[in-house]
Design brief:
The protein is α+β, with helices and mostly antiparallel strands. It has 4 helices and 7 strands. The radius of gyration is 20 Å and the shape is elongated.
């Protein structure tokens, strides 16, 4: 689950841009430090910034979201039907028409079903059993949800 949250955060355009920017900044600082154009303190600050950013998006942010949300720890029964996505647990049930989802992203272990850039469901692939079940789910999801990313 944490890996799926990591992917969600790192796949966002603004976060990708920030990571690339900090990586370029740190690389330039390392090169300038090697050629003695910047002080060790400047290089150290850029390196610390890089480490903090990587830890924030790789460890702290996914862990904080996972711990804060009881939804990630709950068990659900999900039905992928012809016209609806149906979910239920001990607290209740809800269904959504497929048109309510804006996009689907497939990662190695999950299907990410997005309502909008910040609201989504994670469907673990192992819930579909064998590779045939995963393939059937993939085909259904691709046919029902408009925009897909792989």
């Amino acid at each position: 689950m944490l890996q799926a949250l990591r992917y969600h955060f790192i796949s966002k355009r603004e976060i990708k841009f920030m990571i690339i920017l900090v990586n370029v900044f740190t690389s330039v600082a390392a090169i300038l430090f090697y050629y003695k154009k910047v002080t060790p303190l400047a290089f150290l600050i850029s390196f610390v910034l890089w480490v903090v950013l990587m830890l924030a998006f790789w460890r702290w942010l996914p862990s904080a979201i996972y711990k804060k949300s009881a939804t990630f720890k709950d068990s659900f029964k999900i039905s992928l039907e012809e016209n609806h996505f149906f979910i239920e647990n001990t607290k209740g049930s809800k269904s959504w028409a497929w048109r309510e989802f804006s996009e689907m992203i497939e990662t190695p272990h999950f299907f990410h079903l997005y309502f909008n850039p910040r609201s989504f469901f994670l469907l673990p692939k192992d819930a579909f059993g064998d590779s045939d079940g995963v393939h059937e789910a993939r085909v259904l999801l691709k046919s029902k949800i408009g925009k897909q990313k792989v």
